[in-house]
Structure formats: structure tokens, C-alpha cells
Amino acid sequence: MKTETTIQGLTASLHPARSSRKIIGFVPTMGNLHQGHLNLVREAKKLCDIVVVSIFVNPIQFGEGEDFENYPRTLEQDSHLLADVGCDILFAPTVEQMYGKQPRLTNISVAEITDDLCGKSRPGHFDGVAVVVTKLFNIVQPNVAFFGQKDYQQLAVIRQLVQDLNLPIDIIGVPIARAADGLALSSRNGYLSEADRQTAPTIYQALKHAEVQLHAGETLESVLATIKATLSNAGFKVDYVEARQPNLQPVSNFDRDLVLFIAAKLGNTRLIDNLQVKFKA
């Protein structure tokens, strides 16, 4: 596995693959990798000739009071994990390499689908994601890019971005990777205390119980209220519990496929999860 820290170096490393028209797959990450990230790489290996993984903690997607400074940076460990799953090129640029020394005057904003859910709680977050992903797409120029479905709203933002800007990239969403007890894998799980880690799977349990209730004929309103009560009683500070259509449009009844979304804090750790629920006519 090659490691490149500059845009020039990455371009040179990818030149042979481009010249021979090989399919380039891309997995953008912020590092501190877990099995969810590695599943993205495994999926990319199945479909692509060359797989590039980026590790870049993007400062402009962190809001005031969020954990940019403390976000775990584990490049050496990550490098070993990526080599083990067959990553071909690791791109690990500095902030200066990505953003230069001059002020950035260009922003990229995807409207409507960023107005609520995490967009409401973390203003400016998805603009920061849209900017860095567009930059990375321009640098790597992949044929296919892979994103986890745990960040369902982020995946929707990136699909919209690619469609609106006519970027010639296929976007593939990969199912959520979970621990044995159901907790969605996340780099932020490492912030949980031992006691909170025992409580955290309540999120997934509440989602699965909600699925059963919906199929049993409970109203969507009562099911969402039950999730909120379950989480609050378990010690979570609930940010939101919402249902949306798969395209993130509002839904008021369980009369079609929908996605249940949760964001909640446990201690100081913000956790998100979602569950896609199929409608059975």
C-alpha cells in the first residue's frame, strides 16, 4: 500500500491506473477506523481495480464546541488496518494541503435535505461535508465512491451533490456495521464510558421494537413517542426522533417504506442511528 500526503503525489500514483482505464474506487474517512470503514474498503475491492482511502479530519464540518481538536487521530494504526484489507493508496493530506493558505471564498450548500435532522442540530455541518467531499472527488477523480448508511442524511446530501453538479461518479451506500449488541459502529463510540457503552445499544433496540410496533398497526406518532420515552428513561438526552421517506421527504403515516432516525447524547457523546422499515401492503 502506498501512502501519499500531497495532491501531486496522489495524482502521480494514480496516473498508471487512469492511463490503463482501470476502475478507481474511493472511500473518504476521517480516520480512527473501525470495521464499518473496513467494510467500505472490502466492498470497493469487490467492484474496483484500485482502491483509494482518504484520512482527513475536516475542520470546516465541526461546529463551535464540537470535538475537532480532540477527534482521535490514529494514522499508524489505520494504515495497518487498511493494508490488511487491501487498500492500494492511502491519501492523508494536511489541512494546509487541502485548503491552502488563502481564505476560502467558495462554499457548496445542498438545500432542503439539510434543513432538519442533523442539519438543524449542527448548522453548517453539511456545507463543510459538501465542500470537502467535492474537493476530494476533484483530487481523486474516482469512478465509484463508497459511503456508510449510518450517516444516511450525509449519503443523501452526497447523492444530490453528484447529481446536481454532474459529477461522473457512482455513489454506493453500504449497510450499517454493528457491534454484536447492535450498537452502530462509530469512531465516537470510543468516547463512551464503560457504563454508557452498556446503555448505548438501547438506541438500536428501540428502533427494532418500533419496527415491530409499526407492523403490528401502531400509529407512527405513538411509535416515535415510545422511542423518545425509552431513550429518555435510559438516560439519553434526545436530539431528535423522526421518520422520513427514503428520499428524506416528510411522512406522517406508515403507508409506505420509511426510515426511522435517531440522534441522542449519552454523556457527552452524540450518537446517531437509523433503520429502514419496509411497508407490507
TrEMBL record:
It comes from the Bacteria. The keyword Nucleus does not apply. It catalyses: (R)-pantoate + beta-alanine + ATP = (R)-pantothenate + AMP + diphosphate + H(+). Pathway: Cofactor biosynthesis; (R)-pantothenate biosynthesis; (R)-pantothenate from (R)-pantoate and beta-alanine: step 1/1. ATP binds at residues 30-37, 148-151, 177, 185-188. Keywords: ATP-binding, Cytoplasm, Ligase, Nucleotide-binding, Pantothenate biosynthesis. GO terms for molecular function: ATP binding; pantoate-beta-alanine ligase activity. It is found in: Cytoplasm. Gene3D superfamilies: HUPs, Pantoate-beta-alanine ligase, C-terminal domain. One of its GO terms (cellular component) is cytosol. One of its GO terms (biological process) is pantothenate biosynthetic process. The active site is at H37 (proton donor). Its EC number is 6.3.2.1. Pfam families: Pantoate_ligase. This is Pantothenate synthetase. It comes from Acinetobacter soli.
